[in-house]
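Task: sequence design from structure.
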């Protein structure tokens, strides 16, 4: 017969029938915790499976499976005719105070020190409201998702299974993908690449992080426009680089400021979003582009060109990337399909000289052995057959209409309190609110009424403190845009 204490311990085992974890594993977890807490010592006899099943109101077979699980792990020993015991080989655990719940689900704090870097801890917010004026996301309805699904399925069912599933591939990405991206960029952006100049990545942030990890040393100087993209800046800080911000105006970053920095410090990299500067959406004027390339050649710094939404330029043909005029291999060009498909679709590419791509691929192995070659090949299929290009043209027309409609609403309904310029491209409007308006309170009130947009705090710096934010229009229908402006109007007027 077991002691009353042992029976009490087992009767307090908690079972959650709504938990996805099987009941027998919940029981084995609880018994294991009793052992680790010192409540059940070495050679301690356990109640029989029949007794425990009665205590817990479960099937005896369930308890037997829990015993078998712990025996397989070496925590319990079973002897015919004698019963089940805690193994004689385990160390002695000091008893701990019995908690209301023996098993602690989801530890909140690690037992070791975690570096508390402010830039790493910066929170992000996922809007759940129906209406949104977001950071510039695309409308997934305008993307070839069904075509991509079919292409992916085709890749799974075609021959050559060992090549796809039985061995690792190149860390550069699939050959089919790199070849299709090279041809695509040569045709649409006037680049001069081969597949050896392409590295498949999981979105822009991976590209930035990979470059910072591979090519930036602690103390290196990285320059970018202010205001800028904080996620990129956080990567600079994480690489322990010295980040220097330079001002921007209606024509992009001010190159004279960059040249002054170059005369005083050894600049390792300049990060730019020249097509539509983030967050203000302005384009880098052509003379400044050429001057930036000249400075890169003169001072030997890397230009990281983040061309996150090249395809969405409304008033005329988009300006060609800096990389198209780079003759000396100073530019690392980064693109992504997140703006063409969805932010959840993590797929992009880095373009650089062959030796840089080889170096980045070797470092990439340390983080991600390779990309998803099946997805690479599926994407290559719909690039090669023109599907992506066809959908992009259609989306451009839809977003152009939404831009015009949204800007008309802003001007007619909120023109007295919001200053903005109609963006030449991209998916957002940079909106500067009157100084006396509290954007934080406005966004909180809007959210309570079913509308989400950012309060703009992520765009504030010591040297830049405008009462402004980004209002995205591309992912909303014209009806939703009207409802959004109506809510905003009722709050501020």
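Answer:
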């Amino acid at each position: 017969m077991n002691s009353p204490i042992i029976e009490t311990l087992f009767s307090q085992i908690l079972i959650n029938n709504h938990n996805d974890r099987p009941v027998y594993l919940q029981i084995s977890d609880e018994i294991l915790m009793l052992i680790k807490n010192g409540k059940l010592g070495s050679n301690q006899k356990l109640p029989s499976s029949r007794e425990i099943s009665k205590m817990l109101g479960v099937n005896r077979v369930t308890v037997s499976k829990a015993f078998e699980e712990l025996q397989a792990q070496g925590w319990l020993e079973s002897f015919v005719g004698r019963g089940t015991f805690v193994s004689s080989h385990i160390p002695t655990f000091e008893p701990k105070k019995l908690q209301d719940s023996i098993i602690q689900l989801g530890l909140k704090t690690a037992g070791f020190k975690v570096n508390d870097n402010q830039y790493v801890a910066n929170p992000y917010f996922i809007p759940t409201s129906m209406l949104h004026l977001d950071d510039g996301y695309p409308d997934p309805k305008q993307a070839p998702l069904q075509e991509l699904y079919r292409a992916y399925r085709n890749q799974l069912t075609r021959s050559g299974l060992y090549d796809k599933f039985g061995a690792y591939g190149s860390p550069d990405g699939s050959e089919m993908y790199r070849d299709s991206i090279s041809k695509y960029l040569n045709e649409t952006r006037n680049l001069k690449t081969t597949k050896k100049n392409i590295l498949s990545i999981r979105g822009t942030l991976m590209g930035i992080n990979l470059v910072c990890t591979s090519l930036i040393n602690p103390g290196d100087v990285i320059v970018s426009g202010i205001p800028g993209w904080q996620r990129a800046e956080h990567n600079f800080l994480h690489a322990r680089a010295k980040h220097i911000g330079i001002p921007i105006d209606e024509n992009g970053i001010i190159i004279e400021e960059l040249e002054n920095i170059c005369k005083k410090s050894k600049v390792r990299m300049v990060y730019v979003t020249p097509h539509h500067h983030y967050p203000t959406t302005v384009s880098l004027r052509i003379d400044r582009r050429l001057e930036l390339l000249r400075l890169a050649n003169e001072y030997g710094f890397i230009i990281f060109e983040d061309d996150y939404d090249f395809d969405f330029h409304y008033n005329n043909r988009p300006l060609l990337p800096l990389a198209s005029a780079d003759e000396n291999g100073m530019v690392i060009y980064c693109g992504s399909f997140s703006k063409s498909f969805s932010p959840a679709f993590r797929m992009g590419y880095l373009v650089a000289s062959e030796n840089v791509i080889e170096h980045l691929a070797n470092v990439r192995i340390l983080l991600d052995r390779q990309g998803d070659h099946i997805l690479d090949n599926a994407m290559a299929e719909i690039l090669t057959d023109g599907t992506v290009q066809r959908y992009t043209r259609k989306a451009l027309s839809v977003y152009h209409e939404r831009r015009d409609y949204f800007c008309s609403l802003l001007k007619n309904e909120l023109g007295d309190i919001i200053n903005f310029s109609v963006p030449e491209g991209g998916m957002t409007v940079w909106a500067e609110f009157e100084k006396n308006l509290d954007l934080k309170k406005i966004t909180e009130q809007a959210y309570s009424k079913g509308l989400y947009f950012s309060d703009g705090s992520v765009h504030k710096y010591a040297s830049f403190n405008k009462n402004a934010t980004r209002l995205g229009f591309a992912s909303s229908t014209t009806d939703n845009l009207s409802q959004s402006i109506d809510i905003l109007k009722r709050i501020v007027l």
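The chain has three domains: 4-86, 131-136+395-492, 143-389.
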